Request: fold
Amino acid sequence: MLKRFAAALCPSLVLLFAAALAAQQAAPSAATVIRAGRLLDPDGGRILANQIIVVDGNRIRDVGPNVAIPAGAQVIDLSRMTVMPGLVDAHNHLALTYKPEPENNVYYYTYVQESTALRAIQAASNGMQMLASGFTIVRDMGNNGNYADTALRQAIEQGWIPGPTIINSGLIIGGMGGQFFPTPEMAREHNIVYPEYLDADTPDEIVKAVRQNVLFGARVIKICVDCKPYGYTADEIRLFIREAAKVGMKVEGHVQTLNGARNAIDAGIWSIAHSTGLNEEMHTLMAQKGIWRAGTDTPDTLAGHPVSPQAYQRTVASLKDAYAKKVPLTFSTDADYYVAGKTRGEVCLEFLKTWKDAGIPNADILRAITVNGYKVSQTEATRGPIKAGYIADLIAVPGNPLDDVEALKTVQFVMKDGLVFKRDGVMTPAAFFHGGPVNGWRIR
Ligand SMILES: [Zn+2]
Reply:
């Protein structure tokens, strides 16, 4: 039928069509096949031996021990490695890097001295550093200048550069002043809080602030619950949640006081950042309501960023209590600073120490840094698990992370969106770079 129809149009079309069909049949398979010596299933906390993963385009087509290898497929031999799903940092700031010098780790100065454009370029680099350490998803939670986080997400999604999948918050929304304490003249005459924070002090301003972030490319809403004494009430937080829900977005609260935690939990917030406002009672309530804990559990080993023994003990004790009370846990770092000699990804993996010191079993650390990360990022139906139909993101390490979670520090192989980003321990990102938006300029 098609042939006759085509012939009616133009005889040469038939030849073209036949030639195209023949070329398609003869063409070698575009599939990539990964031979995994061990495949880690973090959900089940188990290792599957000798698995074959077939990747077609940017998706996983098949996984199993007896999967047929398509003719002509490129085969990647990871038979001596543990292949596993990509890692998630549920709280990072890719376009912010404050430093011991010259700003004495005070990001007010970073923000004054470094343009959004420079910070966006830093974010592109930080994103690649995260990907090289196996982080295929990063929730980028504000303090990113004038929407550098959105620019990074768009550059990655449109196909300009490699990077993790970015779930970005846009500007952090807070009551007047955000997390800053500016002078009256700098605040009133120079609007110095913006663009690091978006002031929203009334219901109208709350609605408008959420809409601004949605318009400018946020994928999650981040609010300062109690950065100031006039923090948000539970009703005000509910308004944020309702407005964000119109576009399917969740709300994360920066929480630093017990009262703030109570209001956020009462309102049914999606996730709570930091652990300073959380006690045993809050953990119990969070477990009951299924509220994600993005504790940002800083270790005491980061050069140039000292954590006092007392502060570290509090962090460890809080994480331990949250685990005991079955609070949904995410691996989250709040990484936004330079540690000499370490990449942004290496800094984040240092946080494994806090989890180990809290006595959390490797299987549950691995769930927090993978499965729970996909859920808090809302990608669990599309991206994360190594299953047929999912987008092909995966990593490989020597050793077995279930026996020793430190194995995550030696990521040798990274595949993102079906393309190889790192192989044999070396970044090989050529396939990700393009002179135009190959995935579509309409991606906003
Ligand atoms: Zn943060």
Q: What stands out?
A: The pocket of zinc ion is lined by residues 91, 93, 141, 334 (CB under 6 Å). Confidence is low (pLDDT under 50) at residues 1-27. The CA atoms of residues 229 and 332 lie 26 Å apart.
